[in-house]
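B., you asked whether I could sanity-check this one before it goes into the benchmark set. Here's the sequence:
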Amino acid sequence: MLEQSLEISNSIFKKIGASLILGLEFSALLLLLGNGGNVPRLPPVLVFSVVGISLLTSVLFPFIWYYLEQKQKIDSDKVYGIIYSGIRYCIAFNIASFGWKKFYGLQFIVPIEISNMPMNQQTGEWLTWFYFGYSHTFGIIIAVTQIIGGYLLLFRRTLLIGSILLFSLLFNLTLINIFYHMNAGALLQSILLTVGVLYLITLDSERLIAFFLKTKSNIQSLQSSGFLLKNILRLSAILLSLLFTIYLKNLMK
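And here's what the prediction gave me:
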């Protein structure tokens, strides 16, 4: 009885998780297409209305899905496959769009009247955009990473590689958006995309654990050394670097 209850709970939570993530990623895509109200055919009232419907549907659908599954009126694996593909497509479209924007000069552009102001008079957002826009090559590298990463999400064999690549990029961008006080739209997009990519990674958590924590190395550098010696050497890398930094700090006084 307990095992059956746990199985039911896991089934429901799996459906809720997948449905909510799709709702969030689809909402992020709608906000991107609306472009902050700058697209005439997609006024804010329409975009936010559809976003609201999308989020409400993502909350209600798992229970309808579970009910139909119990009545054997729906192929649950097929539904999950569609939702899973939808999540990947929404993220890929979204992140690739931000990459293409950099190619066409729609990001990292600072007005002249802003760039001519002293640094201490500019906001964190403008300072960030000016810094990233200083090197066109660096912006293109980020753009290529976003486009390739998004494309990798669309194939099962490269999904995990693309997810890890994008997570490292998106998590860093999210921290920048938070601590450099970027606008709410940019922050929301980075959070939603990061959450979506993290969800894709967790689906392959067993492979990641096996690769990073269970894979044995062929290098036998410290295997023959004692446990105490190995840990002292490991700790010394952190503590000695700290002492060296303190030494440099004192030289500057």
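One thing to flag: Residues 1-9 have pLDDT under 50 and may be disordered. Otherwise nothing jumped out at me.
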